[in-house]
Amino acid sequence: MKTDRNISDTTLDIRFEYSGEQKSVTLSQLEEGARTFLEIYGNAQFCGKEFADIIQQGNGQSKWENLLAATGFEGYPKDFFKTVLSAIAGGEGQTLALNGVTLPHILLVAFLEQVIPGHGYVSVRSTEQLISLTNHNIPETDRDDIQKVIEKYPVRLSRHTIRQMMVSRDVAYQYLPFVEELDNIGHTNTWIGQFHDGLLEQMYQNRVIFLLNMSCPVYCRFCFRKHKDSRNEKNPTPKAVMKAVDHVRSSPSIKEIVITGGDPFLNRKNMEAAIDGLKEVDHVQTLRLATRSIAYYPDLFLEKEAEYLKYIKQKSLELNRIGKRIEVATHFIHPDEVSPESLDIISDLVKHGIAVYIQTPFLSDCNDTGPELVRLFSLLRGAGAELHYIYIPCSPIHGNSIYWKPLSDGIDIALHLRAHLSDRVIPRICTATPIGKMDWFSSGWAVEKVADQDYFVWIRTPYTPEYFKAFAPLANSLTNIRVNAEGTIDIQYMAKIGNDDYLVGNRPEKTAPVNPEALPEEVARLRTALTETDQTAGSVVDTGVDGISRLHETRVNIHPRAGEAEFAYIAKDPRITDVRVTGEALDHLYEIQRIAQRLASIPHVNALRVCSMKLATDPRAFTRARINFLGEVNALSVVTPLRLEIETWFVLVSDLTPDHTVITRRLNSKGITIYANVPLLGGVNDNDTRIHDLAYTLRSTGIEFHHLYVAGLPVQISWNAAHPIDSYDVVDIATKVRREGSGREIPRYIIATPLGEVDYGLTSTMIRKGDAVDVELRCYDETYYTSLAPEFQFPEGTAISETGHPVVPMPGLIKTNDFVVS
Ligand code: SF4
């Protein structure tokens, strides 16, 4: 029953049912919090379209009144809050609907910020303390076991996380201890690298890990370092950090340092010693600072007037001046973790030229169906983040088994992402084996089950015994590895395969002839073709609007002079997140600005992509004035962002000059990302060394290697008809790039078709037909296209596979064996 039509201020008392805690908060405080939140974040981006339609556009007051009316509390804000807060306090805040209106969890977190404010984090030592802090309902029968869990695998929570957990089951699932952690299935200990000396670990020739701090402000339950002995290891001292710096100084092959822990940001002294020490080592190119605090403890960066953020930005400038860079790596798992604070941190870093890249462990029953990842990655992308990896499965150690999924489930997530997510934010799907990472169906695959071991699979990796000789002879003495016929290492990996079709065996020997070397004038002609013809302009459906082509569910191409018909098409489909403007960007700066202004009123578009071949051929054409102009267009922001990205194309490493580094740095310092596509061309760049060199140089230059097109572009269809790409070489390329490069250099291996792009091996199947190859597009079906254009009909020449996916011929690609991947 409604109790008041409140005008004057009153106090609400809220009693949390399981903790017994009592909190008081004034109505005016709650209303002010609600109005402020709704004014700034009450939109489709944060609250979902349905909720945004209910509260409509307007200021905070009008949205608040609309919410009260829609939920049946018009004029009764106190009753609204009593109902909502009682539900949360009673442990029912996970899906809260009033009068059919589902309240977004991010709004509920904003309410809780008024009721249980506070920063910092708390170490939890007992079940009682856990209940008291979190209001978590732990049955009496489980309490002793939960106490054992807490003693075995320490628990720590931030105030920020506690508020999120009260209203999101998917956040609670990551941080709350659970009884099954006592199960003993899985490995006992964390794998700590091939080479391990104090705070330094080394798994790869070109990069090392510095473990600067052993603890974290929050402990994820799926952590691979979750054992108490890991948590209780003593932190290194700055002196030990300098010893590790000395090791790097005497190892010229080390180019990148991953600075991690625990959370290294919790140990400022060590962080400073590492950055300042490594800054002086000539051959070090990149420092990758890893922290999950952006997601679960943003206060760390924002407190004291964002002092820590300012420190990182200052250090980044210092490193930039001497040709080095800082990047920040972080984890996000579920969209419920994304807060305005975390987006603020990401966009602030990116605007200052610091790339932020995201890694996502794949957790059973949390982010394993697809749509939640699409929403997560879209949110993060708008703030400027790059999506790097999805790790499948999560680490197979004791206490983690509820999070495990069969490998095939993780691999299949690629099908959903390729169909429904922007190509710019599709992470690489990889598995971190004990000897290093592999990418599914390009640099590695599952060979077979390990005999008599139900829970182990042989995984083909890109690594060789020689690779480890230089720094970690230990790898050669492992008993769980074998060297296969092609000379790479297979390793036993603890996981279920799921779908046995993904056990594909060993790769036979290469039999195809090598393409003859293209002449310089032929290469020049191919470069000209890239400049003159837009390689990815073809529409997959008829849009009914002349000036717009639909490249994907999320992406359209428009002309620089696009008009109202094009904008109307974009505005009416909320799935469109990316607008790519054709033509040379530098010839259309005014039009680009006009398009950006127009798109600003279409909130579901969060990326404006422009093309520039001049960036490849004449980078100095990007004068300071033009860069400043583009910087003004780039709207990296927390609310309704419109991120600017520049696309360019390269063929060979010789296309890149020092000028590219200078110009890229200037664009990056405006928060503008440059990404490069590369077409694989027979006799030009179709071998592993050339693509590895190109990948390495693109990364050194600061350009993101986006797609390596294997086949299907116009330039490939004409040239590769006589100089075909052997699918075998694609695996060789992926193997070398993964093994010898940085993980940040790896492109997506893409086949372009008239019906859309697919990932080599991962979302496509190659079908050998005599000398020709057909490609099955396993991520698309007829309903996908009819959802874009109801009248859609498959073009002539398209077959449909037994499983309902289109199959198209792929000229310029050959397959010389029946092995599924190469
Ligand atoms: S942030 Fe990383 S290291 Fe820390 S508990 Fe979580 S997974 Fe483990």
From TrEMBL:
Keywords recorded for this protein, A-Z: 4Fe-4S, Iron, Iron-sulfur, Isomerase, Metal-binding, Pyridoxal phosphate, S-adenosyl-L-methionine
InterPro entries: Aldolase_TIM, Lys_aminomutase/Glu_NH3_mut, rSAM, rSAM_sf
SUPFAM superfamilies recorded: Radical SAM enzymes
Gene Ontology MF terms: 4 iron, 4 sulfur cluster binding; L-lysine 2,3-aminomutase activity; metal ion binding
Record-linked Pfam families: Radical_SAM
Keyword Cell wall biogenesis/degradation (UniProt): no
Cofactor dependence: pyridoxal 5'-phosphate; [4Fe-4S] cluster
EC number: 5.4.3.2
Domain (Radical SAM core): residue spans on this chain: 204-434
Recorded family membership: Belongs to the radical SAM superfamily. KamA family.
PANTHER family: L-LYSINE 2,3-AMINOMUTASE AQ_1632-RELATED, LYSINE 2,3-AMINOMUTASE-RELATED
Name of the featured protein: L-lysine 2,3-aminomutase KamA
Organism: Desulfotignum phosphitoxidans DSM 13687
